[in-house]
Amino acid sequence: MNDFSQGYLIEGYTRVTTKTHDGTKLILYAHPNFQGKKWYDWAYVHFEELNSSGEAIKTYYPSKILDFVTIHGITEAVIQCSEKPLIWSDLEEKFILKTIIGTNINVSYVTVPISLLVHPLCVIPDYGGHSTSFIVVLPKRNWSRYFGDRIMTKFDKYNL
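The structure assignment produced for this chain is given below.
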């Protein structure tokens, strides 16, 4: 028998307020019509997967937040994951990276505890690209390091 035949209750939410690991207040939206427009936040989501040798490895996927649900008193995010993980150091180096959102209902759509949402992401549609293609932008809090590193590289190059 499945849980639903037992009369369990599922509550859905379009907004969650939580705190990040450093204590910062974070509000995340997953709303089909917030102030007249769709608003689905994205997050960098932590997973543990098995590699080819059977070892558990940490991976992180850009994921679109579709909803928040509470089942059995536990609130989780319903997400749609990208097809491939994103390596943070690659984003820090390149500033923007392309990602493809997964469409396989059996793999790409999952629920995860809110605690696995590492931090929010700035993701924009890849206008001119396929509808599943998106651009992940380095968060603003990391811009000073990114541009500072570029300036220092130029100084080093010209021995300034």
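Interim note for the steering committee: The CA atoms of residues 49 and 55 lie 8 Å apart. The mean pLDDT is 89.
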